[in-house]
Amino acid sequence: MKVVVVGGGIAGLSAAHRLTESGHSGLEVTLLERSDRFGGTIRTVEREGCLVELGPDSFLTSKPWLSDLAGRLGVADRIIPTARTHRRSHVVHRGKLHPLPDGFLMMAPTRLWPMVGTSLFSWKGKARCALDLVLPRGSATGDESLGAFVRRRFGGEVLKRVVQPLIGGIYAGDPDTLSLKATIPRFFEMEQRHRSVIKAMVAQRRAAAKQQRGASAGSTAAKHRGQASADSGGPAGSGARYGELASFDRGMEIIVQALLQQLPSDAMHTQAEVTRLTRDGSGWNLACGDGRDYHVDGVILAVPSRHAAELLHGTDSGLFEELAAIPHASSAVMNLAYRRSDVPHPLDCFGFVVPAVEGREIIACTFSSVKFPNRAPEGLVLLRVFLGGMLQQELLRSDDEVLLRIVRGELRDLMGIESEPLHTELARYPDAMPQYLVGHGRRVERIESLLGRHPGLALAGNAYGGVGLPDCVRSGEQAAERVLGGTDAARLTEPAS
After folding, report:
1. Which among 229, 225, 219, 255 has a CA at the least distance from the CA of 10?
2. 496, pLDDT greater than 60
3. Which of 34, 67, 273, 461 has the most CB atoms lying inside 10 A of its own CB?
4. What letter does residue 42 receive in the DSSP assignment?
């Protein structure tokens, strides 16, 4: 049996690894990547003692698939949690950085008094947020935008001052167009199960604290997952689920290198762009731009959905239309290193987010050297600034020098940094973040149905059932199981977590 995996990002690498890991006799796997390197958006570089993440810098351990993969690859002992101190976010409000109230996670408070004392919301906004405690649950049917859900449960202030910038930092999208069920389904489930989201989050926090007290010994990867989950019930925290985030001691590219070491070197090809894919009886023909051709039994397209659509245009018009209809946002990440003495800010948090209503030209900033250890030498600070997203697409047409001036100007205004950075690294990601619009779940169901017409064909990547790295790992592994003959394993999405 011959299988080609198209795309060498984390989803494609995971698919190729699962195929080789399966132990099927006579299985021949080929991995094709059109760029000059594997890993996709995951890329870690070292510069002047700084560990610089040009792509994602962490992953959620509460979704087990990447942690489990790390265990099978022998690198689970290199997983590290976020620093236990300063697990909080700030948000820009009226041109200044304000701390999110302690216990305010994603869109709702889990503690009363920090919410009462914050200057981030007006008294009217605080009272409107508290109405969640008495409001009835919403409809269990249909789909709803994330923005509509937040307005209904907590009011407009919570949406525009906190949820929009947090969601912008995670999904590079507009909450008024993103599907709640497809992006953060656990909040929908909280409302359905507990009626009040605040009550549900308080209960969840208490359960996490209880888990921390009673955690038992387990495997190395399980310990990391359990500890991270329990950490979310710790004494401090706001913004994202920082207690459930982790990375690797020397950066996220550790997982890429571990995968590459397990795959046969003669089966992996870079600068190999697939230009044509056609059905041939029970098999598939692939043509590459360098003149190589493949006739195989199975194909996994672990590429952006628009590229998959182009390859399937002549095979299935329905698949082409559904895949091509998934929009994507572009973004850029700029890393900047400074002397600690040149940064007036106390760096007492993991970073800040910027609401769109502030009218600024960056969407977030992470304090990398605070969030994880060993990201910068003693006496230096490493920052990561995010630009673009669905609400600022046009900004990314600017050249590198313009973007650097913009970032320096924003850091001067918000953090008081006047000095030039010691060094910078800019990475651009055009059309890299799929947008899960309202109705995305139904679209994925239609794609799954259409895939049923084509045995031996599977899709993988971040455009279907989750944008995080663990979701991409699971997507690749499910695609491998489908091609190997799985049935239920063919699904592009997991039950909501």
Report:
1. 255
2. no
3. 461
4. -
